[in-house]
Automatic annotation (TrEMBL):
Gene3D superfamilies: Endonuclease Chain A, P-loop containing nucleotide triphosphate hydrolases
SUPFAM superfamilies named in the record: P-loop containing nucleoside triphosphate hydrolases, Phospholipase D/nuclease
Domain PLD phosphodiesterase: 803-826
PANTHER family named among the record's database cross-references: ATP-DEPENDENT HELICASE IRC3-RELATED, TYPE I RESTRICTION ENZYME ECOKI R PROTEIN
Superkingdom field: Bacteria
Gene Ontology biological process terms in this record: phosphorus metabolic process
Protein name as it appears in the record: Helicase
Origin species: Desulfobacter postgatei
Keywords annotated in UniProt: ATP-binding, Helicase, Hydrolase, Nucleotide-binding
Pfam family name, one: ResIII
Residue ranges that the Swiss-Prot or TrEMBL entry lists as coiled coil: none
Amino acid sequence: MCNKPRGKCFKCSHKSHAPLTQAVVDAHLRGGLIVGIYPLNTDETCHFLAIDFDKQVWQQDISVIRNTCARFDIPIAVERSQSGNGCHAWFFFKHRIRATVARKFGTALLTHAMAQRHEISFSSYDRLFPNQDTMPRGGYGNLIALPFQKSARSRDNSVFIDENFTPWPDQWAFLSRITPLDETELNGWVSKLIRGQDLGELKGEPEEHATPWKKTQQTLTAKDFPQTVEIVRSAMLYMSKKGVSQRALDAIKRCAAFKNPKFYKAQAMRQSTFGIPRVISCVDDHETHMALPRGAEKDLCQLLEQHGARIKWTDHTQQGHDINVEFNGTLKPEQQQAVDALLSHDNGVLAAATAFGKTVVGAGLIAARKVNTLVLVHRQQLVSQWQERLGQFLVINETLPEQTSKRKRNLERNIIGHLAAGKDRLSSIVDVALMQSLNRSGTIRECVKNYGMIIVDECHHVPAITFEQILKEADAKIIYGLTATPDRPDGHHPIIFFYCGPVRFNVDPKAQAEKRSFDHCLIPRFTSFRTGPDKGDQALSLQEVYDRLASDEVRNQLIADDVIRCFEKGRTCLVLSGRRRHVAQLTKRLEKKTQNVFCLFGGMGDKDTARIMAEIRAVPSGNPFILVSTGSYIGEGFDEPRLDTLFLAMPISWKGTLQQYAGRLHRPHDNKKEVQVYDYVDLHVKMLESMYGKRLRGYAAIGYKSKVENFPDAPTNIIFTKNNFLPVYLNDLENARSSVMIVSPFMTQKRVAQMMAYFEPLIQKEVRITIITRPIDPFETEKKALLTPLFSMIRAAGIHLILKPSIHQKFAVIDDHITWYGSINLLSFGYSEESIMRLQSGSIAYELTSSFSGIPHDS
């Protein structure tokens, strides 16, 4: 009957919870059971807050918490855990208190305590019960074992203890003396414990978001620091803790720590936050020194100098050895600017779109610095690409050093060496190394310490733990990062800058697109895909939706037909999916229709990959071909300038991924006049349609214009934003002749009043106007009061009003031909980053309006 672990309890139709009875409590107290409690109620309140402390230093940590509570007269009960290797700090409430308030109090208490003892880890923020503000969908929150369990109690564990870690002689009498708290008291203590945010001041927030009323007021003085602070610059910045106060050390460790957006996103989506830290720290705390990443140097120095501390530097970075190298070529003006910007510093990031020539910039840096260099990459295919490009753009007048190992003497070696796929061909002059070959289960190869300069390609992968571990050991004097997308969907991009330094040169992708010799066109293709009648898309996970999408015959045939049509017009096509099975299905369909179809994905093996790449290169110039692949394999580093048409066979949402995928088309090639991206819009599935709205913003950011069909004379339109679409949209409305349909899930009084001035002349011309929006019922009382008169005004004007629950689409269709489609609610508008496109197509208009046919008016 039980389907675990294949299924989850909350999805099980057979689940049956055992009741909590007097017998169960009795068994817990007498040793027959161990009972735990989920503190978070279904209404997201709680009766208590508990904080867990473990590891070897739990006694020191809880002592500071006790002292803080004593200072502020906060009632606390400390229970030694059942294992005896930790404790729980309990705070009991008079009545149910909102979890947000209780957790803010616990967070503030920890933040205040960290200033008294900097060794209290940021992970303590994750040891609160309850561990999130909201009830995870289908879950219960986190569980804490109840005190007084018999078998643990016999070892003086699972009982409440005093300041000397001795059990209170009468446990019930002790508990009876603990005063329960109310919400007003908690809020009052929060304001006394901290100034500013409950997590304290962290590095993660961009400076423009750190508003004055949110920033923690600095309470440090010169007395918190010695006159001279010693810092050793090596792989990390090792700052001596001698003479530095606890609160100053706490402030310093926050220079390389930031809020984890992944936690807050999961919480907002009512997902479990288990295993997701609230704060991410890149600091290592040693007994005598605190180690910060080198990218935190500016903030560390600023903090010390503001309080009058002089810094005594000791440089233990690896200087490397000089090499005789010259640049073989001419940098473009913008590439030279990038090189110059990076050369002004010993670290930094170049953020430039695909086809900018980041590899060439890397070669220029090596030629300018003239020091032995290691290039770090994360993919096997990038190793050979870097070797080839560096060989093309560098003239290295060096002799390979003698090999001391007999086994390696007969191996073929190159001045531009490599370490990858189990092969060590390092030259120690200029080398390219695969990240996975440098890090074996956390053990970093010593060779990473032999270079004076390290260049990290695709450095947005640095936050991956295996990559971060390498850079923690890399003591090269100079470290640069190259990337097209310095932002990350998980929000962990501060880690990039901690290890590679800040962005020193940024190339705007939209400006870069304008400089290219070809146009950039988005061709949206609206699909009829639905998840099926048996389960609504709300009940399916994204991966389950992807499974159904990949198996949808009609959708796959639409993609295949589009690819064949483009191929027959002489276009070289790249088809990307996120699933190998989907790649195989599409390849099979295409092979039935034409030749020159190739398939590539990770895990094929070196021989098969090399064979297919050779076959692609063998296709004569001017002859088109079709390449079907997974986005994870082709999305980064793949270099084939002939590609001019991309088909996104599976939806994505992150702008950085979109930029990487579209970048495969942006390499210059003879006779490339226009690159096209076919994007499949699954408008009937809410989560997929929402993903398209995010992609649309991404297309606008990289200079694409929308186009209905693949015809030479088809009109193109810019992808509009909230700030520039309105004049064009209103002009289309004013010129409507027969019908206007507006689908807007949300509306505001101000926006509807504005639009009525444009609707009234249309009604007088007998133009049929239909508005489709959500009914009043799901909204809160305050919103209902605003919507009721709006609906009445719309009906009174003679506009056809259709109320449809749970609609998510946002579009307008004018005269069954002009479509405005995107992420903007046309009767409320919204965030400035939202986008919308204008399309002239009767077929697209029909596809959108037909999904709302048959719905009764004023329902």
